[in-house]
Design a protein that fits this description.
single chain; 159 residues; mainly alpha; two-stranded antiparallel sheet; 6 helices
Length: 159
């Protein structure tokens, strides 16, 4: 019977350990990464941004110079909402929320009534969106809602 030297035994053991370790590492690499749940505030910001983008587009489709200040205020809201979106999530596209206009435009142009209804629905939605938001974001959402309520009132007077 042939004897195995201590050196050969150690070398063989080291190779065996290395092979097991390599197999373990390879197995770990194949495990799919666990997806992190999106931050609820980031999701809310994306929804607000998508809604504001639709609102700005609807105001842009209205061919009335009287509505320019309304659109500009919505553009200012949009800029502030975008500013608060974390940089890492700014490039990730959000799932668009259902359109608040609900077919509010007629022939590609928004009517005053459609804009008023849009502003009313948006202002009413803000009270629910404030729940669970951080204080700074809740304050911004409440301010946006107040502006939208004022828009709805002003548009009602012009009908």
């Amino acid at each position: 019977m042939r004897s195995v030297s201590r050196r050969a035994l150690l070398r063989g053991g080291a190779l065996g350990v290395a092979a097991v370790a390599a197999a373990g590492c390879a197995a770990e690499e194949r495990v799919p990464p666990v997806a992190e749940r999106p931050d609820p505030e980031t999701v809310l910001l994306r929804e607000l941004i998508a809604g504001k983008e639709r609102t700005v587009a609807l105001y842009a489709s209205a061919a009335s110079a009287r509505l320019v200040p309304f659109r500009q205020r919505h553009e200012a809201h949009l800029a502030e909402l975008r500013r608060r979106l974390p940089p890492a999530s700014a490039s990730v596209s959000a799932t668009p929320a259902p359109s608040p206009s609900g077919g509010a435009s007629t022939g590609g142009r928004a009517s005053m009534r459609a804009l008023r209804d849009l502003e009313r629905r948006a202002a009413a939605l803000r009270a629910r969106q404030v729940e669970g938001a951080s204080p700074p974001l809740a304050q911004l959402i409440a301010s946006i809602g107040a502006c939208e309520a004022a828009h709805a009132l002003a548009l009602s007077r012009s009908l």
